[in-house]
Amino acid sequence: MLGFRLGFVLSMALLPVGLLAVLQARSLMTEARARSEAALVGETLRATQPELRLIRQGQGAAEALASVAPILVPAATSDPAGCDSVMAKAVGSSDIYSYAAFLALDGRVLCASDRGMVPPVDAGRIASLDLPLIPTRTEVNDPEDAAGLAAVHPAFAADGRPVGFTLINMPHTRLRAAAATMAAHKDNFALILFDTNGRILSANRQSGEATALLPANRSLVSLTTGDAFTFTGDDTSGTERSFAVMKFADADLFALGSWPTTPTTLSIFRNLPAVVFPLLMWAACLIAAWLAAENLVTTHIRRLRRAITGFSDGRRRVEKLDMRHAPREIREVAEAFEQMTDTILHDEAELEDSLHQKEVLLREVHHRVKNNLQLIASIMSMQMRKTQSSEAKSLMRGLQERVISLATIHKGLYQTTGEADIRANELFPEIVRQVVKLAAGPERRFDVKESFDEVHLTPDQAVPLALLMTEAITNALKYGRPGAERAQSDLSISLRHAGPGFVELGVRNSSAGPGDNGGDGAEGTGLGTQLIDAFVRQLNGTIERHHQNGSYGLAVRFPLRTLAEGEERRGREAGEEAAE
């Protein structure tokens, strides 16, 4: 179909553009994804800066206290109150500090901002962890200040000998409150700080809520393998979130930021393969091409095709073609077709009228020939009644029978005129009845059996075959004799197909002796046999005669001619006559 062919050609034309579009879309999506990841990491970095600044401030305070350890060690023994006041001043320097202490290597509290408060972590744990930040939990009056983060720094004597640790405790509630005043975060944004061992150091959520926001299929330790990356997955509560991980190299800290993924139109398109949009554009182009071909070309061509095929199939009623919306070229073709059909219909009408006139003339010719032959037969009948010689009467009777047979043939041709060929099963039964009617009498009765296939003959074959059959039947009626136990003679005439392109005429009658049908009897002249042989040669056929079991028969086999062969033969004969 034209639409599919046009779509295929357009697909081939759009293929290079489609490949470029796929590559460009893939590049753009990769770039967009990289920008999105960078934006997520940047948002996480921006969100961690306030809290990270406070933590580093606490680490700096712990380091500052550790730097005066050579003074604090003797003061812890000689002036405990003065040493405690140093710790209290450190706590008072910032609202995020809840406790400060100077611990000995064995874990004893040498100085503390609050002697009544139990240290949030023992010295043994500090030594084993060897980390600057330690998650803590203390027993305090305010439950919200129980969990926190301790900044720890080793303290050394003047000679470089380790003498203990300084510790600054920062509750999570104070860190979150202070960070919130420095930078505002979205309510759905979650931020978690953790170390290389996967321990949560800080979060902008309560501890239980922060744990629920961790990735479900990844541990925090597995997230410490890279510097900065993003991924999407479900948290432990089953909610899909986007995660961004980044590392702070100077502090061995990691930040995990996450947002819930809200399905939007853009996010749906972002997850589609890069080839989807070029394919959609390709499909849209094909649909547009198909619609254009259907509306501009195919519909009008289909309508024109139906009209042409209908006219070629013989339907001569041509309706007006509606080509108002067709392109000019197709309208011109439709107009040419309408003009052609008008011309053909006019020519066919003239040809039909001419054929009708010729048919009428041909019928008149056959009718006049039949009348003339019947007139001749009547004249011969009148002459026979006046003739006294029996031999002359016999000869004239035979001639009269042949003339009547010719008249019967022309009568059949007159009745079948107008057809390209002649049906033997319509013409020959009438000839048989006429011939038998002439030969039958009170003392001569015949049992006639006819069998004619539907054989189509050309006129130049129908006439000699009819004359041949007439002579054969005349001989059979003349020389036929009834059987020993029958009062009437048997006569069988058949015309049947004898293989591809051949026809066989058979005539059989009952006879008393082998010489009955040869034309050599008392009344025989042999003229019938000569005429039969002449007609067989005219038909280009072969003849077989046989006598057995009290019956005599002949079989004539000849090839059928087509109408074109007959026309060609008549043309050659007309040319030869003109040459003579």
Automatic annotation (TrEMBL):
The cross-references to Gene3D superfamilies, in alphabetical order and at most eight, read: Histidine kinase-like ATPase, C-terminal domain (3.30.565.10), PAS domain (3.30.450.20)
Give every HAMP domain span: 295-349
Positions of transmembrane segments: 275-297
> Where, per UniProt, does this protein localize?
Membrane
Which GO cellular component terms are attached?
membrane
Instruction: Answer whether the UniProt record assigns the keyword Iron-sulfur to this protein.
Output: no
| Keywords attached to this entry | ATP-binding, Kinase, Membrane, Nucleotide-binding, Phosphoprotein, Transferase, Transmembrane, Transmembrane helix
* Membrane listed as a keyword: yes
EC number, as in UniProt: 2.7.13.3
What this protein catalyses is: ATP + protein L-histidine = ADP + protein N-phospho-L-histidine
PROSITE patterns in the record, alphabetically?
Answer: HAMP
A biological process (GO) of this protein is: signal transduction
Q: What main location does UniProt list?
A: membrane
One Pfam match, given by its short name, reads HisKA_2
What Gene Ontology molecular-function terms does this entry list?
ATP binding; protein histidine kinase activity
Task: Write the protein's name.
Answer: histidine kinase
What species is given as this protein's source? Albidovulum denitrificans
